[in-house]
Design goal:
CATH topology of the largest domain: Spore Coat Polysaccharide Biosynthesis Protein SpsA, Chain A
CATH superfamily of the largest domain: Spore Coat Polysaccharide Biosynthesis Protein SpsA, Chain A
Radius of gyration: 21 Å
Number of strands: 9
Oligomer: single chain
Structural class: alpha/beta
CATH class of the largest domain: Alpha Beta
Order of helices and strands: EHEHEHEEHEHEEHHEHHHHH
């Protein structure tokens, strides 16, 4: 190995993810960057994930108990030999140049502590909910600021010394949630630069349906994000731009007006007005849906997007009210 070339540690936590690993691990192994190791942290899988991982991983870390995702990633980092840690979710398929792109960016930007990317436009599964979830994530990241205040473990990298300086990921989230977002906030609060690398795109292997999407958005995103917002505040970027916050209020008012309109007909015009505001504020996203998937996809996607704003705003409101009662 050239002494000037960095050695990289790729860390993948897994729990019963063999159906993903059969796609993700071979693609990592085909990387055009020659100097890296694969570390799989297995969290007591029972589906053959551990046995399959042994064909590709350089190091296997097995956990005695079912640990949280943050703990699993931290354990993988402790077992690493690389100077850069790349965290990849088990349900993500990287490109041949993914590692090279990360290394090149960090080498050319020595003041940058961490980088992360996004999903590409074409998920592995092509059902409506998988397409919607993937395109929404892709669009949000592609429209965000390159100087970020968050982090993403779908495909994200951080310099090892800085990772340990920040004490790694928080370990209190029982299931995959916003442990990466919280680490990003901590990096930002300590003056570390994080870069959203928009050309760094990976394929999502997960299949979504309505109920799994709802469960993830509410339990793993809306609730913990709301708690984090009350503790640290939220940046005006990614899912928290001013237009998104206004949309949350507008869709809640729209819902109330729509319910009451059947009794109070004068609410018809406010209902139409609020719908118009939502279309205007999110016009770029809806245009993106239209261009990529056409009208048959875009119409239900708009209503699903409004539902996303509704349960997110309701979650925030309920938590706000409960916080007021607790403070008394």
């Amino acid at each position: 190995m050239n002494k000037n070339e960095l050695f990289i540690s790729v860390i993948i936590p897994t729990y019963n993810c063999k159906n993903y690993l059969v796609h993700s691990l071979p693609h990592i192994k085909k990387s055009d960057y020659p100097h890296f190791e694969i570390i799989v942290v297995d969290n007591k899988s029972t589906d053959g994930s551990l046995e399959f991982s042994k064909q590709y991983a350089d190091t296997i870390v097995t956990l005695n108990d079912q640990w949280t995702p943050g703990k699993a990633r931290n354990r993988g980092a402790k077992a690493s030999r690389g100077s850069i840690l790349i965290f990849i979710d088990a349900d993500v398929q990287v490109g041949q140049d993914t590692i090279s792109m990360i290394v090149k960016t960090l080498e050319e930007n020595p003041s940058t502590a961490a980088v992360f990317g996004s999903y590409d436009e074409e998920p592995f599964f092509h059902n409506f909910f998988s397409q919607y979830k993937n395109l929404f994530h892709h669009f949000t990241h592609q429209q965000a600021h390159t100087e970020a205040r968050t982090f993403w473990t779908g495909c994200g990298a951080i310099r090892k010394e800085i990772f340990f300086e920040m004490d790694g990921f928080p370990e209190n989230y029982l299931s995959p949630s916003i442990e990466d977002v919280e680490l990003g906030y901590k990096l930002s609060e300590n003056g570390k630069k994080i870069r959203l690398l928009k050309e760094l795109q990976v394929t999502h292997l997960k299949k979504w349906d309505f109920f799994s999407l709802l469960k993830s958005d509410i339990l793993c995103r809306a609730i913990p994000w709301t708690k984090l917002a009350f503790k640290k505040g939220l940046p005006y970027d990614l899912n928290f731009k001013l237009s998104h916050r206004i949309s949350g209020i507008a869709v809640f008012m729209l819902f109330l007006c729509f319910i009451l309109m059947w009794r109070y007909s004068f609410l018809f015009l406010p209902t139409i007005g609020l719908a118009g505001i939502l279309f205007y504020l999110n016009r770029d996203l809806y245009r993106f849906f239209w261009e990529k998937k056409g009208i048959k996809f875009t119409v239900p996607a708009i209503f699903l997007h409004w539902l996303y704003f509704l349960y997110s705003s309701v979650t925030f409101g309920l938590f706000f009210v409960s916080s007021l009662f607790k403070s008394r």
